[in-house]
Amino acid sequence: MPKAPYVQPPSPGCPIPNSPLLIDFSVVTTRGTVVPQRRWTPADEVDVRRHVESAALQLPMFFVNRRSGVGFWLPDILQGRDHDLYHGDREASLGGRTTTTIRINWPGYGDFKRQIPAKDETYSRNPITLARFMKHIGTSVDKFFNQCMASGHLADPRWRIGMQGITQSDVKIIGAVHVSAGTWMPIIQLTGYVL
Which of 67, 58, 53 is nearest to 21 (CA)? Predict the structure, then answer.
């Protein structure tokens, strides 16, 4: 929006207490190229109306690191080093569903999807926490990378995944965007710049 208010956090990625929710972070607070993914939408026009246009989509979720701004390095997520996740023990607002789908549309590769539980394994089936959601996204990105490396697909060399390109250790997960009812896409950032 041309006249949307801009709120500068006191330090990179740290929310301001008692302030309105932020829907994005300035690129200045992060380092490295954000992977330009094509936003996923349902193929059928009726499904677009029902699951996107008429759906109550959630605000984007950002994984705020108390130590270093926004995002977590993928190997840290996979190894459970997420103790510095701001509000990690709070409920992830996934729209009240039992399951949700993570989709990745990495440049030059086919659409990847993975269904994850949106409720925990307890008897009361509580919504999963933000930390658990971040772990599911990290695992999804890792599985996507493994699938791409196994397929040997040759993409644009700038975005190639594998030993001669981008690996899991080059990736930081910034957050996720709710693109349709029951579907989230991760915001993936590289530790370096792609030109």
Answer: 58
